[in-house]
């Protein structure tokens, strides 16, 4: 579980908290109990850096006629 500290605790123990974060132990700073920021080491990938597009590349193929599949049935249903 990630440690959560309030702003006052973070200011008081900043050096210790930074050392822990640099060793791979992130922490959260909260204000009035509401999480505000997450401190992580610079070399740790953040969620924003995770590549989602293309993650299944090569695992399936799309037929060349994909955009025409079922055209007759769709036209029959919607009278196009």
Report on this model:
With 80 residues, the chain is α+β, with helices and mostly antiparallel strands. It has a single domain (3-42, 49-78), classed as YefM-like fold. It is built from three helices and three strands. It has helices at 7-12, 14-22, 71-78, and strands spanning 3-6, 27-31, 34-39. This is Antitoxin. InterPro entries: Antitoxin_Phd/YefM, phD-YefM_TA_antitoxins, YefM-like_sf.
Regarding quaternary structure, what we see is single chain
Task: Quote the CATH topology.
Answer: YefM-like fold
Binned, the helix content reads 25-40%
**Backbone CA Rg:** 25 Å
Specify the CATH class: Alpha Beta
Strand content: 15-25%
Gross morphology is elongated
Give the N-terminus to C-terminus distance in angstroms.
Answer: 57 Å
The residue-averaged pLDDT reads 88
What do we call the CATH homologous superfamily? YefM-like domain
The side-by-side strand order for the widest beta sheet comes to 1-2-3
Q: Count of helices?
A: 3
Query: Helix and strand string, N-terminal first?
Result: EHHEEH
Helix/strand structural class: alpha+beta
**Major beta-sheet overview:** 3 strands, mixed
Number of domains: 1
Function: Antitoxin component of a type II toxin-antitoxin (TA) system.
Keywords: Plasmid
Pfam families: PhdYeFM_antitox (PF02604)
InterPro entries: Antitoxin_Phd/YefM, phD-YefM_TA_antitoxins, YefM-like_sf
Task: Sum this structure up briefly.
The protein is 29% helix and 19% strand.
